[in-house]
Amino acid sequence: MAETMTPAVSPGGARLPVVGLLALAMAGFLTILTEALPAGLLPFMSADLGVSQAMVGQLVTAYAIGSLVAAIPLTAATRTWRRRPLLLLAIGGFLAVNAVTAVSTHYTLTLTARFIAGLFAGLVWSLLAGYAGRMAPDHLRGRAIAIAMVGAPLALSIGIPVGTLLGGLVGWRPVFLILSGLSVVLVGWIAWKVPDFEGEADDRRLPLVAVIALPGLKTVLAVTLGFVLAHNILYTYVAPFLGRSGLASRTDAVLLLFGLAALVGIWIVGSWIDRSLRALTQISIVAFCGAGLALATLGEHQWAVLMAVAVWGVAFGGAASLFQTASARVSGKTADVAQSMIVTAWNLAIAGGGVLGGLLLQFGGAAALPWSLVVLLVFVGFLVFADRKTGFA
């Protein structure tokens, strides 16, 4: 029989197994940090590996491609596996590939290690939301997922700047060895505080086509794709956009503001998601759209840009929790497969944001970027408004 988690009980009723959920958040933190860190270490890795900074940038691309191509097939192939051994295997994979990255002196080997890291990342992100939901009592599942998702904004707002600073002080290779060390700690943490669960029984598995046909799931996937695409169109090219207001030299500070605001968004969503999923989703879309309008019309004024970035951060911070909770609700026992589809949509949006944003920047200039956000967000807002009974009920 699978080990079960009985949440600690207080006089006020059931509460969340926070220490175990934070282990899941640490897994998310590790995946995002592993993905994005080369961007902060570009000059150091470029000089050491003897390739251009553009080639080092492809280390991030390789990771994203790995996540994109692996999430659905790997999750589907491991649906019957017990959950904790599968999660430990994925974290152990990060231990290995980050160690290889740290010692590799050949660009091709480093690129291959990054692609394999992306494979493990796709699997980890497919597991996190469903795992968190199973660890929590029914009425707190949304909050549990919000806690499990907190690692991503922490990695972006704190982990990347700290990793970049360490890279300048001790070199980029020790930074990746530190990531491997964090994987060792996380393996012990998961074995200590994260329960094991059974996978799906062979005779109860729905085909992938049947999973995606579940009422409301296609809407959740479309909203995820549109919302995250809007985010990445601007986030990927935020530096040239900030040049309009003279803030390009302070891009790091602006992104820190965004990251801190995102933490506020996660706290708000985590506090209310189990009671107000639909309202929170609508508020996030409206707030993000409002921030886009402000950036489009007042993007030359620093005060307006900073206020809009803060609103944007709050609106985006809880998005992963909202979309993954909606997906988990409509998919039930097939939550891990549905989450893998969310991961795929998310990574498609990241890739699409780079391509579409680049085209907009080339042909319309930086001023065109926020207008594209408004168009996309009006569309996803309509989808949520029309979906009253299924995905965003």
How would you describe this structure to a colleague?
By secondary structure, the chain is mostly helical. It folds into two domains: 11-204, Growth Hormone, Chain: A, CATH 1.20.1250; 208-386, MFS general substrate transporter like domains (Growth Hormone, Chain: A), CATH 1.20.1250. 79% of the residues lie in helices and 1% in strands. It contains 16 helices and two strands. Strands 1-2 form a two-stranded antiparallel sheet. A hairpin with a 2-residue loop joins strand 1 (9-10) and strand 2 (13-14). Helix 1 (18-40) runs antiparallel to helix 5 (107-135) and helix 10 (217-236) packs antiparallel against helix 16 (369-386). It is globular, with a radius of gyration of 20 Å. Mean pLDDT is 88; it is low at 1-13.
Helix/strand layout:
Blueprint: E1 9-10, E2 13-14, H1 18-40, H2 42-49, H3 53-77, H4 83-103, H5 107-135, H6 141-148, H7 151-170, H8 172-193, H9 208-212, H10 217-236, H11 238-242, H12 251-298, H13 302-317, H14 319-331, H15 335-364, H16 369-386
Antiparallel strand pairs: 1-2
Helix pairs in contact: 1-3, 1-5, 1-6, 1-7, 1-8, 2-3, 3-5, 3-15, 4-5, 4-8, 5-6, 5-15, 6-12, 6-14, 7-8, 7-12, 10-14, 10-15, 10-16, 12-13, 12-14, 12-16, 14-15
Overall mean confidence score, pLDDT = 88
Which structural category fits the helices and strands? mainly alpha
* Largest sheet descriptor: 2 strands, antiparallel
Dominant shape: globular
Rg, alpha carbons: 20 Å
Low-pLDDT windows of residues: 1-13
Please tell me the CATH architecture of the largest domain by its name. Up-down Bundle
> What order do the SSEs take from the amino end to the carboxyl end, as H and E?
EEHHHHHHHHHHHHHHHH
Helix content: over 70%
How are the strands of the biggest sheet laid out side by side? 1-2
